[in-house]
Amino acid sequence: MIYLAPVRLSLPTQIAPLILAWLGLASMTSPTLLAQFAQPVQKQGIFQQYILQQKTEKAFREDVTARSLDFIERVKQVCQLDLTQLEKLQLAAEGDVVRFYREYERVKSEVKGFTMNDAQARQRLWPIVSPLYMRVQQGIFDDSSLCHSVLKTTLNASQLEQFQTAEAKRLNYAFTASCKTTIADLSREIPLTGEQREKLLSIMLSFARPKKLHPQMENMLGMIILGKSIERIEVESGLDKKQLDHLVALLGRVRGMEGNFEW
């Protein structure tokens, strides 16, 4: 699996409310979050909210270009590509971007004029929007990408091993960082003692790493792990009933999103 450089997202304030709003479950989020996001979500067009994610189209396209260049540079440095290999990878990346924007324009045309306050339109257009939405979240260079195929056929055995090792290190770093960030965020929602934070982090770090981790989903990962570890947390963390009830309520925001990860 090939990844783009991470884009940090704050799950409680960006991802969860958007998805819940789409599904008509906004009442599951806190009043504070609803007050913060209800108005912008309702006024925004469907394409603007879920694909551009409140960026301008110019900024979105610049971001796609920057990630593409960053990915190529990262592979170049890790694998020490020769000129021929680099040119093949650049052409493949250009092809993936062209293919992405072909789908981008098709979806944009089909949902044009519909806004988030049109519940029937949201439901009817979700099958059209969701594949592109997930592509944006997961990155352009996934298993089906031209870049992925080119890397497998162009890199020699040594280079491929170097790249896989680098990706494993990146995954481990992202996993640890996500767990630590989640505990820090959780501490702002639920008062925790130092010992409770340490125990929660220990439980999370002992959890199996996902086989794949899309950068845009990194902040969601910590909450997913907490949800999957809730039985251990109840026994080992030292959280009292009030803290546990609060945690369970928070975990409701990411319920059903485990499918974004492969364990």
Radius of gyration, in Å, reads: 20 Å
Q: Please, how many domains?
A: 2
Low-confidence stretches: 1-41
Question: How many β-strand stretches?
Answer: 0
User: How many individual helices?
Assistant: 12
Describe this structure in words.
There is one protein chain. The longest helix is centred in the middle third of the chain and has 33 residues, at 157-189. This protein has twelve helices and no strands. The chain folds into two domains: 11-155, no CATH class; 160-260, no CATH class. The protein has 263 residues and is mostly helical.
Q: Can you lay out the helices and strands and say which pair or pack?
A:
Elements (H helix, E strand, L loop, with lengths): L14 H9 L7 H13 L2 H5 L6 H23 L3 H29 L7 H20 L7 H9 L2 H33 L4 H12 L12 H11 L1 H7 L4 H11 L12
Name some characteristics of this structure.
69% helix
What's a concise summary of this model?
The protein contains 12 helices and no strands.
